[in-house]
Amino acid sequence: MNARIEDYALIGDLESAAMLGRDGSIDWLCLPRFDSPACFAALLGTREHGFWRVSPVGAGPCARRAYRQDTLIVDSRWEGPTGAVRVTDFMPPRAHLPCVVRVVEGLSGAVAMRSELRPRFNQGRIVPWVRAQEHCTVAVAGPDSLWLSADGPMEIRGVDTTPDSTDPNPTVLDFTVTAGQRLTLQLVWAPSHLTDPPAPLSVPAETALKATGDFWRRWTAQCRYQGLWREAVTRSLITLKALTYAPTGGIVAAPTTSLPECVGGERNWDYRFCWLRDSTLTLSALLRSGYREEATAWLDWLVRAVAGDPADLQAVYGVGGQRRLPEAEAPWLPGYEGSRPVRLGNAAVGQFQLDVYGEVLDTLYLSLRAGIPMQPHLWSLVKSLMGHLREHWREPDQGLWQVRGARRQFVHSKVMSWVAADRALRMGELLGRNESAGEWRAMRDAVHQEVCREGWDAGRRSFVQSYGSPALDASALLIPKVGFLPAGDPRVRDTVRAMRALDHHGFVRRYAHEGPGRHGVDGMRGSEGTFVACSLWYADALAATGDLRQARETFERVLDVRNDVGLLAEQWDPRDRRQLGNAPQAFSHIALVETAFALREAGA
């Protein structure tokens, strides 16, 4: 049976990341990049689909665990009748090849330990050849190899000493640690054509541990947030950094695919890519927190990714800016708790979403205001995007939530079209470029008038999800945040009050779901949990409209559903009290940081 989503901690090296369970098992790891095929995929299946567990023999979940302060290093502690042991897990920031380091330290008595390694390359599908070499074990299949080394005496089982033996059984290393004794296991990925032991295996574990801790503590020390929720903000920022693909600056939505929004259902998506939806809030969170270098890298990634014909602007791109992310299913994986299909790739690349034009131009405007120099060619990009949007903003689209039902006139998409025109005008004023100001101002006014006329439901006293529909959508909570209307406008206040209809045990849904059949808006079967970011938007809107007490209560309610190491998934199920969706989710942690700043500034 799969562990709960909240049972997993994250370790990473700024190019990929591993999901580490409370039982000491790494059940998900894609190498060498976030979007590479997984070599451990037990998270979406069974142990037969690949894992690496290090724990006391016969033990269950650890007694307690925690990140070392201001780092991405996890300490897990087990206590048993013969003694206590700590396992320290981390991935050194990438210098050459990806490496997972697991340091086992005896704390008291003598504890029998076991390492079980079962790699399954190509998304849990390929059983590798496994062979023993001097001081290490090597697993090879296709372009991939994994090298396992240990720095102490161990009994090795499950490895055939004949060259290139295919063995479906795990490589098992048994050893005992006594009080004060340390042993280290290192696992390095390398291209399979390399025949010599990879360089990271020669780095002493203590050196790697110190360098990794120093790296994260130096990075965290730059954080400018000072306030009641500093620990939560810091952990969210570390998580955001861990989801950054350092070579390009792209930030993945999550390191996982197909963790379900409804357990047993079909709402399972691949989030190992970069969404333009997240761009403005990401840049804002990084700049406000003092991370200008990361903000600039994210902006540079964004500009490279969207270069080209504005008609080809996508909602999502790969970590390198790649546009083709073909969606396929993996029928050999049974899915997390039977949630099928498991999807690889994301068909959202082919959707038409108006809101992304507003996101891109809002991001460019925010960066310009922050003093990040705008390259001359970017003004041409602004004009190109606006030229296309002026011709197409009246069309229906698939909206912020990337629905797989019919296109609609989504209110949020129109609001973001207004944002695009507004930010283009503001950038023109800052740059002294007003050659298109008249056309853009006319469009901005036309969008505003239409949204206030068609997107407002007088009966519900609220902005709604789409023109002509009485359905509510939590994205309307962003109307004051993006400046479409001021927080004091009666229509904003009424909309915030109306959002109580989306409340589910103190948390906020994206929109209402209608029973177990196909939902009319998104075209998918089943319901889903409450959306973490929407609950945080609600707290923002409450603070903006003056209800500081409820804003703070809503925010702290979200803090209470982080897991034991401070991580949030995409969604929360208040009924079963469990996390849902891909995890950890950048959108959730970005919203947490933004809300912490908003509440501090409001005096909550």
Structure described in brief:
With 604 residues, the chain is of the alpha+beta class. Helix content is 30%, strand content 22%.
Your description of this structure?
With 604 residues, this protein is an alpha+beta fold. It is built from 13 helices and 29 strands. The strands form seven sheets. It has a 16-stranded antiparallel β-sheet that branches. Strands 27-28-29 form a three-stranded antiparallel β-sheet. A two-stranded antiparallel sheet has the order 17-18. A hairpin with a 4-residue loop joins strand 2 (17-20) and strand 3. Helix 11 (532-544) packs parallel to helix 13. The protein is globular and about 75 Å long. The relative contact order is 0.10. The model is unreliable at 161-165 (pLDDT under 50).
Q: What's the gyration radius in Å?
A: 25 Å
**What percentage of the residues does DSSP assign to strands (E)?**
15-25%
Portion of residues in helices?
A: 25-40%
Low-confidence stretches: 161-165
Characteristic terms for this protein:
604 residues; 16-stranded antiparallel beta sheet; 22% strand
Write the layout of secondary structure elements.
Layout: E1 9-12, E2 17-20, E3 25-30, E4 38-40, E5 51-56, E6 64-67, E7 74-80, E8 83-90, E9 99-118, H1 121-124, E10 129-133, E11 136-141, E12 144-150, E13 155-157, E14 165-166, E15 171-178, E16 182-191, H2 205-220, H3 230-242, E17 244-245, E18 250-251, E19 274-275, H4 279-289, H5 292-306, E20 316-317, E21 328-329, E22 343-344, H6 355-369, H7 376-392, H8 411-431, H9 437-454, E23 456-457, E24 462-463, H10 490-498, E25 503-504, E26 507-508, E27 530-531, H11 532-544, H12 548-559, E28 571-573, E29 578-580, H13 586-602
Antiparallel strand pairs: 1-2, 2-3, 3-4, 3-5, 5-9, 6-7, 7-8, 8-9, 9-15, 9-16, 10-11, 10-14, 11-12, 12-16, 13-15, 17-18, 19-20, 21-22, 23-24, 25-26, 27-28, 28-29
Helix pairs in contact: 3-13, 4-5, 4-6, 4-13, 5-6, 6-8, 7-8, 8-9, 11-12, 11-13, 12-13
